[in-house]
Amino acid sequence: MDEIRQPPAPDWLTPGDVNSLVSGLWPLGTRRDEQGQLVVAGHRIEDLLGEFGSPLYVMDELDFRRRAREFAQAFTGWEVFYAGKSFLCRAVARWVAEEGLNLDVCSGNELAVALSAGFPAERIGLHGNNKSVDELSYAIGCGVGRIIVDSLAEIDRIEQIGSEQGSTVNVLVRATTGVTAHTHDNIITSHEDQKFGFSIASGQALEALLACQQRPHIHLAGVHFHIGSQILDLEPYAEAIRRAIGLISQFRTITATELTDLDVGGGYGIAYTAADLPPDPEMIHRELTTVIDQACAEYGLGELRLSIEPGRAICGPAGVALYTVGTIKSVEMGQGQRLYVAVDGGMSDNVRTAMYQADYSAVLANRSSSSSPRLARVVGKHCESGDILVRDVYLPDDLAIGDVLAVPGAGAYARSLASNYNHALRPAVVAASPGQARPILRRETLDDLLALDLG
To answer: Of 315, 331, 358, at which residue does a domain stop?
Structure first.
């Protein structure tokens, strides 16, 4: 039998111990039991799959709450808004409220989910580059705490609705800072040629601020910016802050009015692989506060009311995705063979690898193995060659059909970006804590899909 040769692994990937759980990738307390089986929030993964099915998202509730508290404590004196787009359901909205955080939503439907969970409207901010009249009417009527303005047309809509409802609407203007964030092109939101916000460099941001100030039913609180997602380097935030505070100073010079609020956005990255070294909340606070204080002193501005919008950094590491192996094949390549491991999910339950070329980790979760590591690619069951979940990972050479793989960092932008591609059924999300595991989003059924099909 010919020797199996493997293609070279990425520079950051090393074989290591196929049974190890890299620190920082998993919910706190995740471990292997005496049989080598993964235990998340006190629950063996085979027990979770036996009760709730495969594939499955598991959210460690205590880990989520711990990370929310870490941001609240690190940013004492700030308003911390959980970015609901990363993952939102009623249970998560209640956790966020109970931990004292505010909430950002990006659509009328996200707002409806939050309100249905009893989240206080005055602690909610509404984002979006194309908010409809119905969405704005709903938000203003509910009394949301703030709306992040994203276009001149939206300013007119808010003024009209505020007039009709007899309300004064609290707004921040979303500024495009022109700063380059070190992340994938599809999730950079600070460059000039993109759909979000008003450019500072072109003068559009100042124009938007002046337009808001002139509307009697709009209360202009300040400036918001967001530079991108999954950012591990804080330096781009520093430059964005300096430019945003420069805009606030420019507005004061022209109008003799001091704005009160600055929101520095979200996008703070997490560890998906051993190569990722994300900053913790205390480091983020320390770095951003230093720059804000320096910039305010430089421009002679008073103290600002500050806010921040972590999402992924709270829910991402708290989530684990579980998959069952269905087929395994070795594919000939010019440089050897690659092991393809196909599981019962795919791009319908995590599209980030296909969309952003995101890197993930995976481990054999239902048992330990003494076999040597083999470079593998974990793929889904969809009719797309780009249907990849984990591009490169070392798995044991004795991996078999029916084994379970666990993917950490699955709490953010997996279920929230999930689809019914190939009429796949979106998996359940289970909230796990010691002594309890309960579904917070049930698994879709074929009846759910057929109910939408009117024939």
So the answer is: 315
Helix intervals (H) in 266-310: 281-299
Q: What is the mean pLDDT of the chain?
A: 94
Mean pLDDT, rounded, for 308-326: 98
- Is residue 11 in some structural domain? no
Please give the single-letter amino acid code of residue 279: P
- Same domain assignment for residues 113 and 147: yes
Tell me the per-residue pLDDT of 429-453, one tens digit each, with 9 for 90 and over: 999 999 999 999 999 999 999 999 9
Q: What is the pTM of this model?
A: 0.94
* pLDDT at residue 6 in the model: 66
DSSP 303: P
Query: d(Cα 55, Cα 345) in Å, to the nearest integer?
Result: 6
Predicted pLDDT of residue 184 = 40
Q: Does residue 383 have an active-site annotation?
A: yes
Question: What DSSP letter does each residue of 167-214 carry, written as one string?
Answer: --EEEEEEEE--PPPSS-GGGB--SSSSSSSEETTTTHHHHHHHHHHT
Burial of 387 (0-12, 13-18, 19+ CB in 10 A): buried
Amino acid 181: pLDDT:
63
pLDDT tens per residue, range 252-287: 999 999 999 999 999 999 999 999 999 999 999 999
In a domain, 163, yes or no: yes
Decide if 190 contacts 179 (C-beta within 8 A): yes
**Residue 29, phi-psi category: left (phi > 0), alpha (psi -120 to 50), beta (remainder):** left
Q: CA of 396: how far to CAs of 5, 7, 284, in Å? A: 15, 16, 37
Structural domain total, the chain:
2
Residue 325 token pair: 């192996």
The pLDDT of residue 1: 41
In a domain, 15, yes or no: no
Residues 363, 366: Cα–Cα separation, whole Å: 9
Q: Residue 331's domain spans which residues?
A: 31-60+317-452
Query: Among 271, 268, 355, which residue's Cα sits nearest to residue 312?
Result: 268
Q: Which of 339, 347, 342, 340 is nearest to 325 (CA)?
A: 342
Residues 246 and 107 in one domain: yes
Q: Given 89, 106, 142, 383, which residue is catalytic? A: 383
Tell me: pLDDT of 66 over 80: yes
Residue predicted with more confidence, 125 or 11: 125
pLDDT number for residue 4: 53
Same-domain check for residues 311 and 343: no
Listed residues 315, 342, 372: the one ending a domain: 315
Name the residue among 166, 124, 127, 173 with its Cα closest to residue 145: 124
Q: Rounded CA gap, 415 and 373, in Å?
A: 30
- Are 277 and 235 within 8 A, CB to CB? no
Non-local (6+) Cβ contacts of 89 within 8 A are 113, 429, 440, 441
